[in-house]
Give the backbone structure.
Amino acid sequence: HAGNRFSPGNNSGRISAVQIDGASVDWANLTILEAENSALEVTGAGMLMLDKGLFVGTRSRALYVNSGSAEVANAGFFGGDYGVWIDAGESATVTNSAFDNFNVEAVHNDGLDAASALFQNNWWGHPAGPHDPSPEDGRLNDNPAGQAVSNCVDYDNWLASAPPLPFGPVIVQATLVEPTGDDPAPTQLDLIFSQA
């Protein structure tokens, strides 16, 4: 059970699906789907280098930099509460990647310096870039159609369209349309795909 020590839905057993603790890891082609907690956590002053990744439908954070650093390129972050969460004092760099369909924020930096959250040259679900309505950190991009980011995230030079990623679009939401009339069988399934 990705992100749960016991069974799906058991709130007392939630853990990160994959944890890098104090190690330096260089990965390619990593996919984590539907993790119940954080999909991938960097802790213990660990270091992640990832080329080509896919994170879909994570309940909490797709990538959680708790203690250490992460460098990611050519990845897709789709659905869940947060795409990337960076604790204060830690760092992450993500480039040529796509963020879409987050409930809270695509990127959250708990630190006070945008140099610890370098997210240039990414797709934010809209050609006008991410949604950053607060000028508190000296950056402002009021675009409610884009994916939200916290203060202290360097999202300059965003991409006007999704980058070519090493996988096709993924289903980010499926809704069963309830039947009408006397026929109890479902008549339609509505699917929403990522834009990457």
Summary: Strands lie at 18-21, 24-33, 40-43, 46-65, 68-86, 91-95, 98-109, 117-118, 171-177, 188-193. DSSP finds no helices and ten strands in the chain. The first strand starts at residue 18 and ends at 21.
